Structure formats: structure tokens, C-alpha cells
Amino acid sequence: MSFKSSAAALAAIVIAAPVTFASVAEAAGCGGASWYALTSKTASGERMNPTKLTAAHKTLRFGTKVKVTNSNNGKSVVVRINDRGPFIRGRVLDLSKAAASEIGMIGAGHAKVCYQIVS
Asked: Residue 117 forms beta bridges with which residues?
């Protein structure tokens, strides 16, 4: 296969499968959140650090800062999106252990939250 035909095949794949990110409407929402404290690599390529204020979201761009508020107690925290997920129906975010601790959801393991992009 020549370089020209390889490049054309790659271009066809890229055009056929565009990457989409969250729309403005998806930039805020409410739903379930859980937390995790792994140290594996995240979808962004960085190592997960449970002591950092980070989170996983299905479509928001990596690096996006999001204010997350626990609907049960009103506590908020600003996190940086660095991973993909959660993959459980009804959940909108997976928070690092540090972020979950800031909003008082460690004991329960999950909570109803609302979130909005701050930058």
C-alpha cells in the first residue's frame, strides 16, 4: 500500500468518526457522582492522584474546571477533568477521593451533585 492510499484511508476514517465534546447544554447538569482512589493512568494520559481535585466526565474536554455541588449538603469543590467516565447509568461524574472528601461524600460513596463549568 502506498503512502497516498494510506493517507486517504486515514482521512476517510477521521472524517467518518469525528470526536465530539460536550455542548453548551451539557456544560452543566445534575446527577449521581461517585469517587475513586486508583493510581492508574487516566484517559488523558496522566497518572491518577487521589489527593488532587480531579474528576472524570464522559465528554467534557480534559483540563476543564468544573464546580461540583453536593445536593445533600450544599458543599462545593472545583475540580479539573482529567479522565473519562463514569460508566454507570445515572452518574455524571467520578470524583477523586480528595474532591469527594471536600463535599462530604466519602462515607456514602456516592451522592447527587450538580455541576457547572467555571473555566
From this structure: 66
